[in-house]
Amino acid sequence: MTSGSGIQIPSRLPLLLTHEGVLLPGSTVRFSVDSPRNMHLVSHRLLKGTSLKSTIIGVIPNTRDPEHDTDDLPSLHKIGTAGIAVQVVGSNWPKPHYTLLITGLCRFSVTSLLKERPFVLAEVEQLDKLEQYTSPAGEGVTAEDGELGELSQKFHQAAIQLLGMLDMSVPVVAKLRRLLDSLPRETLPDVVASMIRTSNKEKLQVLDAVSLEERFKKALPMLTRQIEGLKLLQKTRKISPDTEKRTGSREWRNSSGMCCKYIRSTFASNNLKGWSVLDSWVNFAKPPHSSLCFYCLDIRAARTLLDNDHYAMDKLKRRVLEYLAVRQLKTSLKGPILCFVGPPGVGKTSVGRSIARTLGREFHRIALGGVCDQSDIRGHRRTYVGSMPGRIINGLKTVGVNNPVFLLDEVDKLGKSLQGDPAAALLEVLDPEQNHSFTDHYLNVAFDLSQVLFIATANATATIPPALLDRMEVLQVPGYTQEEKVEIAHRHLIPNQLEQHGLTPQQLQIPQNTTTDIIGRYTREAGVRSLERKIGAICRAVAVKVAEGHRVPRSDASTPESPAKQGSKSQDKAAPPEMPIVIDHTALKDILGPPVFEMEVSERLTLPGVALGLAWTPLGGEIMFVEASRMEGEGQLTLTGQLGDVMKESAHLAISWLRANAKVYKLTNIVGGPDPLEGTDIHLHFPAGAVTKDGPSAGVTIVTCLASLFSGRLVRSDVAMTGEITLRGLVLPVGGIKDKVLAAHRAGVKRIILPKRNEKDLEEIPANVRADLDFVTTKNLDEVLNAAFDGGFTHPQLTSKL
Ligand SMILES: Nc1ncnc2c1ncn2[C@@H]1O[C@H](COP(=O)(O)OP(=O)(O)OP(=O)(O)O)[C@@H](O)[C@H]1O
């Protein structure tokens, strides 16, 4: 079909090359462009032109604009849509791009390419008549036109049937209704195919159908499919006309993006409670929490955004980008659920937020800490007084779209109670095989959650229910080194806090050595949350000074005051704070008080019977002192410091091994006898007595501490250790090495004794930390003791032989 003498598009059109979304004549589509030729088209043509003609461009679908303008053009899709650019919006963030709103006019085919740079210009042939969009509905194809007439009649009837099933109060439905009445029938395949749920591939088929008959044939099955889908949905709702009359009908959008009639079920009785429940249910069911928010992902932009938002965390960022790249290439959303595991304040939540921004999706955080009732996840049945929907459906209502990023915060803190196991309800939510029909008890309507991107966070995996853990891919987020914290503070925390307190860098400056001081002496944490709080405290103190500086001084004579007050006022007036206020050590002490942590390691290792161990807790790595003393007695062992069973067993193991080897190492009891326990009681204490401790990794520390006690020798003051022991004196590997090493580094330790089989974990330690430390890897307790004591702990037989 070629155009006659009617309305003509220009014979030469600049071409916009698109690979996502298909523009059909009569529809309006938003395109985001950032590739070179497309960008040039917008800046050289659309933004420069002043005539209506200059806003008409050709949109070629299914064709990717090359990344560089020096690259050759790929072969173009044969048929495109001429369109009018009705809106152009430009942005430089996260990288330069334009968003175009284009309304399709008619099909064209490319006859020849005139130029490829700076943008593509082509000689085109118009394929559709443009008059059809302006001529009255009665004209065009009619029933008399043979097979075509029949097809158009069928199509028109099907379109009317579809509209009958939809909610007229929804703008897009009302628009479709108006178009159906006013447009000639030959335009209907394009218009309907662009409005109902169709894939890009299907839209391309409609676009490529140049003959009108073929176009009707392609679009009719899509329309029929939509109608059948809606019918099925209505059937499952078990519609009863009686109920409808009694309770009225309510429409809401289903997950396919269309609106369907939904009849309130029989739960509503005519009593007050019933109506109030009904009312809140209806209010809940009304919002379009199934409308889709489209996004297109640019991996390079995603990388820039993640790098801008977060310093360090390279491994995590790399894995997140891989994950996003796979999702971009494979649009099916069935993928692993990422679970970020690490100590508090290391940025797990904020990476989740960045992922949502990267994807251009809504973000919603669901705090699961302490949730112990499964109706928290699934909602209450409406028969209960005060029933509510669960957090998942509530979250969807809050964000208003059905494809947000949901951050399930603290999955390791889920509880269990008589009201059921919330973890079991979460299993259904997170399982891609099941979550397309998640039913909240309150709504009692299956909802498709498969478009939601779930990310979980936890402090430790040990308390995550195994079935839940099995559905997630765990990404460890370790703590930061001192240097990383300084960078994070200066790049992110200080600017953020300044902004939150209405301050500028011209008013407050925190030099790097002050930040180092805050990190070392006022905080002891794996993440940066306390550091952020301390910086906040400094900002508040400075805000007071700055505000005082701005105060308009009142005349001293206006109010009689005590001489002291008057004195201070005249001081304020005479010395407004000098800007910028620089926080040095003295200012830091004034604001934050005396240091909370001191370098205490060497001071505490001044007596025999003390050793320094390394522990891992969900809050990160920690140093841990072990103290031992002995007194006359019956050979009893006392253990204090809230120890778990495994740790108590380690203590017994350590004593047994030392007793068995006492002769070899010349260890003696209180009166110098060969059995260290004879006539001697031993007390082992693990300070920080209020904190429960457990795990086998303190084994080597207990042995070293007791060896020091029995030999009367001091453990080196700069050494810390970790490792599990066996009764035969072997040292077994333990977990959490990175966090433990970072904690030791923070505490100023110089030598770390580790199990040999943990050597591979040292690769994860940042190079600057590794350079500061001397690692001794050990296979047995003999090697541990030799490394822990100055000059070694070699047994006397060997020494005497030498
Ligand atoms: N690498 C980083 N770069 C920039 N800011 C960071 C980084 N890591 C953490 N932060 C900041 O530290 C603060 C705490 O982070 P966040 O709340 O994400 O921690 P979290 O790991 O989720 O902690 P929790 O387990 O307690 O929820 C936030 O303000 C965050 O922006």
Cα separation of the termini: 105 Å
Number of domains: 6
> What is the number of strand segments?
26
What small molecules are bound in this structure?
Answer: adenosine-5'-triphosphate
- Global mean pLDDT: 80
If you compute it from the alpha carbons, what radius of gyration comes out, rounded to the nearest whole angstrom? 36 Å
**Form type:** elongated
Low-confidence stretches: 238-262, 264-278, 286-295, 552-576, 796-802
> If helices are DSSP runs of H or I spanning 4 or more residues, what is the number of helices?
28
Beta-strand residue fraction: 15-25%
Structural class: alpha/beta
Q: According to CATH, what is the topology of the largest domain?
A: Ribosomal Protein S5, domain 2
CATH arch. level architecture of the largest domain: 2-Layer Sandwich
Specify the helix fraction band. Answer: 25-40%
- Sketch the major β-sheet: 5 strands, mixed, barrel
Return the CATH class of the largest domain.
Answer: Alpha Beta
Layout of strands and helices, then pairs:
Layout: E1 12-17, E2 28-33, H1 36-46, E3 56-60, E4 79-91, E5 97-115, E6 120-126, H2 146-164, H3 171-182, H4 188-195, H5 200-208, H6 212-236, H7 241-247, E7 249-253, E8 259-263, H8 272-285, H9 299-309, H10 314-329, E9 337-341, H11 348-359, E10 363-367, H12 375-378, H13 391-399, E11 405-409, H14 422-430, E12 438-439, E13 446-447, E14 453-458, H15 466-470, E15 472-476, H16 482-500, E16 508-509, H17 512-522, H18 529-550, H19 563-574, E17 581-582, H20 585-592, H21 601-604, E18 610-617, E19 620-632, E20 637-640, H22 645-660, H23 662-665, E21 680-685, H24 699-711, E22 719-721, E23 724-725, E24 731-732, H25 737-746, E25 751-755, H26 767-772, E26 774-778, H27 781-788, H28 796-801
Parallel strand pairs: 1-3, 9-14, 9-15, 10-11, 11-14, 16-17, 20-21, 22-25, 25-26
Antiparallel strand pairs: 1-6, 2-5, 3-4, 4-5, 5-6, 7-8, 12-13, 18-19, 19-21, 23-24
Helix pairs in contact: 2-3, 2-6, 4-5, 4-6, 5-6, 9-10, 9-11, 16-17, 16-18, 22-24, 24-27
The chain binds adenosine-5'-triphosphate.
